[in-house]
Amino acid sequence: MLVIYFSYALVHASRKTLSTVKPSLIIDWTDNISGEQPLFPDKHAAEGFLAFLDGAFLGAYALGLYAGGTLGDRYNPAKVLAFGMWTSSITVLLFGMLKWSPFHSPVYYAATWIVCGLFQSVAWPTEVSIMGNWFGHNSRGAVMGLWSACASVGNILGTLVSSNTVQLGYEYSFAANACSLFFGGFFIFYLLPSRMTHELEAVVSVTDNVERPKAISFWQAWRLPGVIAYSLAYACLKLVNYSFFFWLPFYLHTHYGWKESVADELSAWYDIGGIIAAVVAGIASDHFSSRTPILICMLIFSMGSLFAYA
């Protein structure tokens, strides 16, 4: 579980890098001191392009989630996950290094970040399927509550790495998080199969003579009771969550005038709250016949906190 936990934490750490260095990117993209043509004429154009990058990344990520889940079901999940970590780390590194390359243009920035979204999409569905197969329904709330905090842990790690390297140059922030993700892929590749092999050996004698059921199609899964309702609710939640994920450090920097590194560190408190809530809600949900009341209460409290924050 720890290997899976830290693998997705590293994925989120690399994903967080862009949101923590946006002020530096805007300065670099609009700088005309060197005499060269800047990437954008003013900061508003640069901000608009950063918003486009966020949307393009999420669009590619959403499209890739289905394929990522399919790959994890058909092939060795450890190899699929390691491949996703290695390839996405390369794209994160390339994104930060584009300023030094002859391909320093919006087109290449967009293409690199879109490809990164596609590669990162294999991580979440693959890891969820692994965790779901390892733990039973009765303890799943506590286990998944603890494990799902890995995203917030990764956000904090990525934020802290960026806040300590951005003063050297934003490219170092991308490089540091990319290298961590790349080497983390080796831990997945070599450590995860042993656990999975053990699990398979334990059940092979039981399933030798049992015909495995056919996997349902995408549309059949979509028609399962509750899938549409929970998907729409989760989409609304993600809308708010990713708004904070992508723009909170930049908002704190521009609205309050705080240093970029200070704004990055303060934004980490949002994820600290996410860790606490995930653990508490997960444990509490195991003591109810339905997990829905816990979700409703958490969403109501989050609405109140948003109004207070505004």
TrEMBL record:
The chain crosses the membrane at residues 49-68, 80-101, 107-130, 142-162, 174-192, 227-248, 268-285, 292-309. One of its GO terms (molecular function) is transmembrane transporter activity. SUPFAM superfamilies: MFS general substrate transporter. Pfam families: MFS_1. Residues 1-310 form the Major facilitator superfamily (MFS) profile domain. Keywords: Membrane, Transmembrane, Transmembrane helix. It comes from the Eukaryota. It is a multi-pass membrane protein. GO terms for cellular component: endoplasmic reticulum membrane. This is Major facilitator superfamily (MFS) profile domain-containing protein. It comes from Wuchereria bancrofti.
